[in-house]
Request: fold
Amino acid sequence: MATVFTLVDCNNFYASCEKIFYPALEGKPVIVLSNNDGCVIARSEEAKMAGIKMGVPVFEISEIIEKNKVHVFSTNYALYGDVSQRVMDTLAELSPEIEIYSIDEAFLDLSGIPLNQLVTFGKKIKQRIKQWTSIPVSIGIAPTKTLAKLANHIAKSDKKHQGVFNLVNNPNIEDFLKSVQVEDVWGVGDKYTQFFHRSNIYSAFDLKIADENRIKEHLGVLGQRLVLELRGKTCYLIDVNPENKKEICTSRSFGHPIENYDELEQAATSYVSKVAQKLRKQNSLAQSILIFIMTNKYAQGPQYVNYKIVKLPEPTNQTAELIHYAVIALKKLYKKGYKYKKAGAIVSDVIPDDGRQTTLWENLDREKNKKLLKTIDSINKKAGMEKIKFAVQGDEKTWQMRQENLSPQYTTRWEDILIVDVDEVYKEIS
Reply:
């Protein structure tokens, strides 16, 4: 049986999430800003039509925002993460063979669907996601994941396909590939693009008919697979159990420069706590932790960047242990007289949590601590992030990144849940 894949991609995901609880924003330009409300990282279709580019600093487009009455939002990670999970859960009900590719994309295996019903099934996916989550999606269907990625681009950009485009047995596939720039092919970066252009390969079709052995000689097996996937030969199957991350990082720029140690410690340990939670979520342990601090390289005044790596005595995902060694590293890094702009924690040498070897001298009750942290994680998930936390993380987070246009966390924080007065609604209807 021939393989068939679909790539489901949420349209303008962050902006679409903001529109869910603001029906009045439908048809209005919406943008979402990066950390500290710096640059544009998401745009609605209306914002794109207004001429707002991705990545542009918000202060440079103040006139466009005012002229077009653009609605501006700070990044609401809690909301976006929860909506993403709801989208993925819905997709999993439609197809058990699912690979979550990113926060707003997933591949599904549709090999069991009759070929003449693929578009109909794609429309069913689109309708179900919209009905259950209010998120609009685009559906690309093809015999390989690389072609599905390209098909999704057409589904999103060409309105006549109504959000679903099928490349399986498509008689116009050659014309389609000729219209796609080679740098727009999934997996083609700057290095590959430079090589392809030197080799007179400018379109996806040029790459499809290229000499696969020559491509392999210069770019290795990954380059060869690009060619084969464009020819409809499956090289990448659905990965329902992707490998755990071997390195996990949490870092943020501060809302204002930090000079005193206590504030810096609160920020760094809060990042360590998030890293520890991510480790536990993927059932992993870290064998080393890196702490870094840095000033703003674009600001005037003395500059300082430094980091320290601590090799942990035992692999761990326990917050208290990681914070202990992070604080030791931070005290050695910190220097007075500098205005720090950013800090971060990176754990590496990550292994499965069942791969840890105990030592004869270990005196920690890890099983007891494991149960305690599981309970804390569960409470924080239900009641809101950091409802329970370590004292060293502080209470007044004056260092937190600037989010002047942050929307409520409607689905993850009790105090932000919408309240509907049924009596008032009934009065308006009657």
Remarks:
- The longest strand covers residues 284-295.
- The mean pLDDT is 89.
- The CA atoms of residues 266 and 328 lie 13 Å apart.
